[in-house]
Amino acid sequence: MEAYYKVGSLVLAAALLVAVHQVWAQDCKADIDGLMKECLQYIKKSGPQVPPSQGCCDVVKKANITCVCQNITKEMEQTISMAKVVYVAKYCGRDLPHGLKCGDTTIPKK
């Protein structure tokens, strides 16, 4: 009987972890959508590096950067410049921590 409860507890724990991850990803999706809407023109590969708008900075300041970085897709990386992402984050007062893996890019030392 004790083994049954242990297995049940493990299944429950696994289910909770999946649920938490899904909620985290959903929260993150809203951050990603907001960043793409407000900041895309400042982080896309084409064009010059220019200071972002206040609207972009507002989204950057509120975003869960770790979650966003973990959910950057290869398709997104084909469109955006990670160097500009770092610039925009810094301009908006959000230094990205050294070693943070953002898509396929690892944030370098300053």
UniProtKB/TrEMBL annotation:
Q: Where is the Bifunctional inhibitor/plant lipid transfer protein/seed storage helical domain?
A: 12-102
InterPro entries assigned to the protein according to its UniProt record, in alphabetical order: Bifun_inhib/LTP/seed_sf, Bifunc_inhib/LTP/seed_store, NsLTP-like
| CDD domains linked to this entry | nsLTP_like
Residue spans crossing the bilayer:
none
Alphabetically ordered keywords of this record: Signal
Does this UniProt record's set of keywords contain Repressor? no
Annotated source species: Nelumbo nucifera
Q: Which residues form the signal peptide?
A: 1-25
Name this polypeptide is given: Bifunctional inhibitor/plant lipid transfer protein/seed storage helical domain-containing protein
Task: Return the SUPFAM superfamilies for the record.
Answer: Bifunctional inhibitor/lipid-transfer protein/seed storage 2S albumin (SSF47699)
Pfam families, per the entry: LTP_2
